[in-house]
Amino acid sequence: MLEEIVREYHARGTTIVFSTHLMDQAERLCQRVCLISKSRKVLDGDLKEIKAAERRGVVAVEFEGPDIWIQGPEIDRIERKEGSLHLILKDGQDHQHILNRAVASGARILRFDLIEPRLHEIFVRHAGEGLVGDAGMDDGPRSASSGGLTHFGTA
Fold this sequence. Notes:
By secondary structure, this protein is α+β, with helices and mostly antiparallel strands. The chain has helices at 2-11, 23-29, 47-54, 95-105, 119-127, 129-132, and strands at 18-20, 32-37, 40-46, 58-64, 75-81, 84-89, 108-114, 150-154.
C-alpha cells in the first residue's frame, strides 16, 4: 500500500524523500539514492547512472553447442544461476572477446546479457562487506545490527 501511495504522489510530480533499509524497495521506487553507512555518505546520485557505472564483468549466457569457449583467460569463475551460466570476468576484461570466441566456436548463442548489479551489491562495494552483513536484503527478518544502513531517494 505504501508503494502505491508513493507512486501516486510521484505521478503528480511530487518529490518524495524516502528512507528505507530494504534495498529492493529502494530500487523499485527511487530515481536517486544516497547510500549511508556508519553516518557517512558512501554514494549519491541517479540510480540508473550509478548502476551503469557500477556494472562489472558479469555476463549471463545460454547457448547450445560446444562449450570450450567459456574457458577463456578473461573469465575468473563460472556460476550457475536461474537457468543460465554467469561468467564472472576478471577485472578490466572485455565481454566482447568472449562473445566473439563463442560465435567462432560454432555455439548457438541464445542469451548473452551483461548483468546489472543490485543496489545491495553496490552498497557492499562502497561500504565494505563487514559493515553490511545481510542487512538490506528483502528476504526475511533482520537483526538490529545493520551497520547503520540507510537509503534515501526520490521516487
